[in-house]
């Protein structure tokens, strides 16, 4: 299992280095993307939990009637 994560890490690290080396992105672009992704993760989890509660509540109303 650790070897899979190692290969995934190497591929991601290679993509990061190559995008900066080939001048497709600046380092600050990669940092900003990581910050945005880190901020979207908890927001997405909360939104999913809210949506799931809403969906289950509506299913309960439909079943009771």
Please tag this protein with its features:
single chain; 65 residues; mainly alpha; 2 helices; elongated
What is the count of β-strands? 0
Number of individual domains: 1
Oligomerization status of the protein chains:
single chain
Order of helices and strands: HH
Mean pLDDT: 89
Tell me the number of helical segments per DSSP (H or I, 4 or more residues long): 2
| Percentage of residues in strands | under 5%
Shape: elongated
Q: Gap between N and C termini, in Å?
A: 49 Å
Describe this structure in words.
- The protein is an all-alpha fold and 65 residues long.
- The chain has one domain.
- Helices cover 89% and strands 0% of the residues.
- The protein is built from 2 helices and no strands.
- The protein has helices spanning 2-21, 27-64.
- The longest helix has 38 residues, at 27-64.
- The protein starts with a helix and ends with a helix.
- 0% of the residues are buried.
- The model has no long low-confidence stretch (mean pLDDT 89).
Short description:
89% of the residues lie in helices and 0% in strands. By secondary structure, it is mostly helical. It is elongated and about 55 Å long.
């Amino acid at each position: 299992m650790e070897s899979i994560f190692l290969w995934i890490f190497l591929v991601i690290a290679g993509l990061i280095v190559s995008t900066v080396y080939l001048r497709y992105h600046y380092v600050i672009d990669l940092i900003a993307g990581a910050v945005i992704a880190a901020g979207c993760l908890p927001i997405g989890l909360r939104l999913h939990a809210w949506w799931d509660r809403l969906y289950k509540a509506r299913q309960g109303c439909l079943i009771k009637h």
